[in-house]
Hints:
The structure holds 2 protein chains of 2 kinds. In chain A, strand 12 (271-279) and strand 13 form a beta hairpin. By secondary structure, chain A is an alpha+beta fold. The radius of gyration of chain A is 24 Å and the shape is globular. The N and C termini of chain A lie far apart (51 Å). Chain A folds into 3 domains: 5-104, Rossmann fold (3-Layer(aba) Sandwich); 133-202, Dna Ligase, domain 1; 208-444, ATP-grasp fold, B domain (D-amino Acid Aminotransferase, Chain A, domain 1), CATH 3.30.470. Chain A has helices at 12-24, 41-45, 64-74, 90-98, 108-115, 117-126, 142-152, 175-193, 250-266, 298-305, 309-317, 397-410, 420-428, 430-433, 441-471; strands at residues 5-8, 28-33, 48-51, 78-80, 102-103, 156-164, 167-172, 198-202, 208-216, 222-234, 237-243, 271-279, 285-291, 334-341, 343-344, 350-351, 354-355, 358-360, 367-371, 378-379, 386-394, 412-414. In chain A, helix 12 packs antiparallel against helix 13 (420-428). The model of chain B is unreliable at 90-95 (pLDDT under 50). Chain B has one helix at 80-86; strands at 2-7, 10-19, 22-27, 30-40, 43-48, 51-60, 63-68, 71-79, 98-101, 106-111, 118-119, 124-130, 133-138, 143-148, 155-156, 161-165. Chain B is 4% helix and 61% strand. Chain B has 2 domains: 2-93, Glycoprotein, Type 4 Pilin (2-Layer Sandwich), CATH 3.30.700.30; 96-165, CATH 2.40.50.100. Chain B has 1 helix and 16 strands. Chain B is mostly beta strands. Chain B is elongated and about 60 Å long. At the A-B interface, helix 8, strand 16 and helix 15 of A face strand 1, strand 2, strand 3, strand 4 and strand 5 of B.
Amino acid sequence: MKITKVLVANRGEIAVRVIRACREQGIASVAVFSQADREALHVLMADEAYPIGPPSPAESYLAIDKLVRVAKASGADAVHPGYGFLAENAGFAEACGAAGLIFVGPPAGAIRALGDKTAARRIARQLGVPTVPGTFEPVSGHDAVRAAARAIGYPLMIKAALGGGGKGMRVVRAETELESALALARSEAAWAFGDGAVYLERYLVEPRHIEVQVLADLQGRVIHLGERECSIQRRHQKLVEESPSPFVDDAMRERLGEAACRIAKAAGYVNAGTVEFLVDAEGRFYFLEMNTRLQVEHGVTEMVTGIDLVREQLRIAAGESLGYAQEAVALRGAAIECRINAEDPFAGWMPSPGTITGLRAASGPWVRDDSGAYEGYTVPRFYDTLLAKLIVWGVDRPTAIQRMARALAEYKVVGILTTIPVLAHIVSHDDFRAGKLSTGFLDRILPALAASRDRAKSIAVIAAVLAEYERLGHRTIVDAPSSAPDWRRGRHPGWRP
Amino acid sequence: MKFVVTVGDASETVEVSGDAGRYRLTIGPEVWDVDGRLTAQGIYSLLVGGVSYVADVRDEAGACVVDVGDERYVIRVEEQTRFIIRTKGGAGASLGAQTLVAPLPGRIVHVAVKPGDRVEKGDTLLVIEAMKMENEYKAGSSGTVAEVRVEAGQAVNGGDVLVVIR
């Protein structure tokens, strides 16, 4: 099987990422776009691009029939799903297969087996891989749920069996909250995943979120590419990721990697995938779930291993063997990724769509900008808020952190609000620099940042009021003013939005 | 002298006294003693408790655009009596109907209020999922819920009226 033309069934930065990998290998690329995405970067970059319908994802990027039809009509021989949308939809993988298209991802059976989180937990248990204490089957029945909850202990998490991406999760702190939380979780799960089945898990307090990248070829070889630390999250969604984790030493990496490979093998996994673990303060790790797709944060693994994961995905899908073994994989230096989202971090992470009137991306040594945006581009209101992933590499973690701080200071987005101010604060925070990370990190540091911002706002109000006060006849100038040079005007002189 | 300062949707009263570079400003519950100086056209140097700030102020379409550090604020400053005349009652006007409108297309995840409920400023009214994010919408002022036009699970378009508070 040779792949000569790939339809990219996605949008935004990940579609751009896949198109780039295709171009580097001499593979033609086909983009698809909804009515809201005619001017999106992936459409401008692909060799071919076809409309697939209205902005609503259900009628465009989730419409399996349309995607398969466009793929066949365009003469594509393979389909890359990116992440999100249909990436973990077994039905899509099957529909591609039935149409004679290579699905660049795992077999439908593996997607299905691992998509049910309770089934994945059972696989891990059978292999002797530790799992977060909880149920291994969906729970139902008032008394049975209550008994299961008591056995696990509070606080606990209710999770959607078919969930993922931080959705359909609810924390229950006491038995009195159980019933209403259960009802809400069920209805959310039913709406979001088409199935209301939920299970229970112990709620670990401020764990680390560490995941292992695996690659598996059709010949049966499974290797891992080390771990990524993804503990900096807002609302169960990742914001900053790095590889390697400052918490993981060689011995722990070997144990995590070995567990991840065993789970992938047992599930019949092929292609790139990620096994997620929670790690507690004592270094005990627990299997969480396996993501059957390319992750958003795959770039940090690429930077430390030198392995192009999308290229490997395409090679594996074409039936090529990996051609190298575990011993050939070495992590070198440290890489960090920051997610630049169109959001207002100071208004509850409210989405901030709109037109980007000014844009200067960071560049320079060991800086990578995986972006779906350009100056003049309008961020549509219909899709997720990820604009760009800023990734840096350094010879060690402190160097990478310094480089990220430098790159974030260069990165300017005008016209919409972004997560850049919060990211800059995170990477300069002492706890981040010391590697003291947990999933509660952001909630802990955000109040201080908001307070300093409130202060800046008060200063602005004072200046505006004094200007008006003066205009009304009160003199604020008490003696002959000296002329402040322009460079005094900002903390980062030279470039102004 | 009293001013009404509007940033975004929120207005508050600021009282200023002093002269010759030394000012006292009262913003809500906070009192600020400021050594303020216009060092060049539109560039203010402010010393507050020994900390030095530079604010760049200019007029754009009737509003003050102020740059402090890396942040930019658009601020409307009006003398209080003028504000009261313009808004026909000033702060009293905001006690009228308050309408929560969906800023983006999305889906209602959770509705926290029902008609007749008394809400205080800052109380959660509902949760909307938009652009794959769940966001809480809070009451901008206190009042009584007059109408709830949506229910959990419902899809909404940008501009749809969700909740009316009187």
